[in-house]
Structures are given as structure tokens and as C-alpha cells.
Design goal:
The protein has nine helices and nine strands. The chain is of the alpha/beta class.
């Protein structure tokens, strides 16, 4: 079979089993099996024969994807802000909209010298900021030791393991210091909604999803804790649920945060809330 024939067969299999973007998934999986660093290379080799020795592992990967295993877990990596990070079940799979959070933080914090990434998970937010702001001191914290081990692996992969501090902490309980920027993509899914999430999201750790009965329990705790950890005029940047902006703004006002701005994501959803304290 040629590359094109194998690609079409994999696409059809995934499509019939309800996998969104079946063609794109098939391209990534086939490129991975064939050792191509970029899936676009498939289009330059559509007539290339694919041996049975190559099709066998592809069939296994396609089957796993059809069963709902996330593509990122199968490949073992994810692209985020133009860089490739290790990705597995130890932490939340980074979402494309979170790249905008990083872009906005960089835009709003030009003179930053210290950054804290709370509930860092795989570390992609804090590490992306550290790579873009090499002079800033960056701390990553998470309640999960497994997530921190993944963040550590990503820091090592990008050559900045000795430039970031990692701290196992329930939000800011064990974090020391004062920060110019506190950024977080915290758990914000209401507990009762978790069971109805897509089968792919079900592979994320519940700890990284569960925001309590109303989805705001972690956010409210973080806002309160941040007040004593921020420099004067420091920036608090939060990613939130699609229907939470108004309530998060009220929480921030109750804690005397100012200059509150709600930013939309690429789909026009009110996804990020930025504010300053002091």
C-alpha cells in the first residue's frame, strides 16, 4: 500500500468511530510511525510504499486513538507556543487557547522580574514564559508531584532546568517569595460536569479539572492567596471557564483587585481575566 492509501484507510477508520479531525489525527500518527518530523512531509511522499512492518504499529496506534486515547498521549508530545513539550497522563493536555494566555502575559508584563505559574501541570505556561523572558525568575508550583515531575522533564528538555524553581504546593501554601506576575490555568470545571466531558478530556487527571461544586472554588482560593504574594501593581492572570467571567470579576473586586480586564480567546469566548493588586 502507498502512503496515500494507508492515510485514507486510517482516516476512514477514525472517522467511522467518531474521532474529530480524523484526517489530521491520521496524518500525525502516520508521520510518527514513518519517522517524519513534520506531517507535511507525507504530502511529498504519497506514492511511497508502506511496508507491513510499518503498518502494524500504525494499526495499533489508530486503534488506541479510536478508543479515545488522546493523540498527544499516543505521540508523547504536544506543540505549544511554537515549541514541543513532553505530554502524558501526569498532567492536563495543554489546549491551544492557552497559548494566548502566554502571549497576553508577555504583552502585559514587559518589566517583569519574577513569575509564578500556579497549578503548572506539564509546565508549558511557566516554561514558555521563562524561555521568552530569560532574565525573569520563574517558579512552577503544583499540588501533584507527578505533574511536577513532568514539568521537570520539560524544563530539562528545553535546557532551563537550572533556571526555574519547582515547588510542590497546594496553591500558594508552600510557596515563598513575592512575584510580579502570578499566572494560572487552574481547575475550573464544576464537579458534576466532569462525567460529561469528552472521552479525551476524561484522560486528564481529575485533580487538574475539578473546580468544586460551582467550578470556582480553586479560583477563589487562589485570588485570596495571591494578595500576599504579589508585588505592588503585580499582575494576576487567570484562565477560566467559558461562562465564569462575570463571577470571577466579582471575586476579584471583593478582594480589592483593580484594572480588571476580560480577554477573549480565539473563538470569542471570555477566557482570561487579568487584574492588578496593590
Amino acid at each position: 500500500m502507498t502512503t496515500l492509501e494507508v492515510l485514507n484507510a486510517a482516516t476512514s477508520y477514525l472517522d467511522k468511530r467518531g474521532v474529530e479531525s480524523a484526517r489530521l489525527n491520521a496524518e500525525h500518527l502516520l508521520a510518527h510511525v514513518l519517522g517524519m518530523p513534520r506531517r507535511i512531509e507525507l504530502y511529498l511522499q504519497f506514492e511511497r510504499p508502506v511496508s507491513e512492518g510499518q503498518r502494524a504499529p500504525l494499526r495499533e496506534l489508530v486503534k488506541r486513538r479510536a478508543e479515545g486515547i488522546p493523540l498527544q498521549h499516543i505521540l508523547g508530545e504536544v506543540e505549544f507556543c511554537g515549541r514541543v513539550f513532553i505530554c502524558d497522563a501526569r498532567a492536563l493536555i495543554p489546549r491551544p487557547e492557552t497559548e494566548l494566555l502566554v502571549e497576553l502575559v508577555l504583552k502585559e508584563s514587559a518589566a517583569t522580574t519574577s513569575i509564578l505559574d500556579v497549578a503548572t501541570g506539564s509546565g508549558v505556561i511557566g516554561l514558555s514564559l521563562a524561555l521568552s523572558r530569560p532574565d525573569a525568575a520563574v517558579t512552577l508550583c503544583d499540588i501533584s508531584s507527578e505533574a511536577l515531575s513532568l514539568a521537570a522533564a520539560n524544563a530539562f528538555r528545553h535546557g532551563i532546568a537550572d533556571k526555574v524553581v519547582q515547588k510542590e504546593s497546594d496553591l500558594l501554601d508552600s510557596v515563598e517569595g513575592i512575584f510580579d506576575v502570578i499566572v494560572s490555568n487552574p481547575p475550573y470545571i464544576p464537579t458534576s460536569d466532569i462525567a460529561s466531558l469528552s472521552r479525551e478530556v476524561q484522560n486528564d487527571p481529575v485533580l487538574a479539572l475539578d473546580g468544586g461544586s460551582d467550578g470556582l472554588r480553586i479560583i477563589e482560593r487562589l485570588v485570596h492567596a495571591s494578595m500576599s504574594k504579589m508585588s505592588a501593581g503585580g499582575l494576576l492572570a487567570l484562565e477560566i471557564g467559558h461562562d465564569q467571567a462575570a463571577r470571577v470579576v466579582e471575586i476579584l473586586k471583593m478582594h480589592n483587585f483593580r484594572d480588571i480586564v476580560v480577554h477573549q480567546d480565539y473563538q470569542g469566548v471570555e477566557r482570561f481575566v487579568f487584574s492588578r493588586h496593590g
